[in-house]
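Hey, resending since the last one bounced:
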Amino acid sequence: MFPVTLDLAGRTVVVVGYGAVGRRKAATAAAAGAHVVVVDPAVSSVTGVPGLAIRCENYAPHQLSGAALVFACATPEVNARVVADGRTRGIWVNSATNPTDGDFTLPAVHAAGRLTLAVATGGASPALARRVRDQLADQFDATFEAWVELLNEVRGQVFVTVSDPARRRVLLDGFADWPWLDRLRSEGAEAVRAAMIEVVRGG
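The structure tokens again:
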């Protein structure tokens, strides 16, 4: 498996089957900015997830047209067809009933601001991935989120101010070291921001 995060904003994601799993996949894709198309003969309307396009019909291969990703969340038989049709068209498909048949699996995710924790087991045990995610998530509080935002801000300053790539790397690696998080907890964001900028300027 090759871990990656995808920018789905404005892209089409097709969800075949709108049971409990399909609803979760559709909501996640919509939250990522995707244009989500739901295909399910038993669903004529959806509440709680704005912007979904509904196709109240049986699955057919042409419904994959224009999709960047597809989630096959129907019966095993339908999902197998969706996987096969997706591969024929060069579209990546996730199969809910048999993850190893599809092209990708989804990690258990914890998102906090710009920080995203993703834990995967290659489809072997989603339950274990969720438990590991939950245990890790407890270690990252609001101060850690503030640190990530501060690092993003200061990174821009580094690229504007420092022309030497080697020094940029040293600065950015240093700011991502844990003592800065300790200072953020004890001194606050404004003081730490000022201290980082002083380091960037060579003070």
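The two ends are 45 Å apart (CA to CA).

Sorry for the duplicate.
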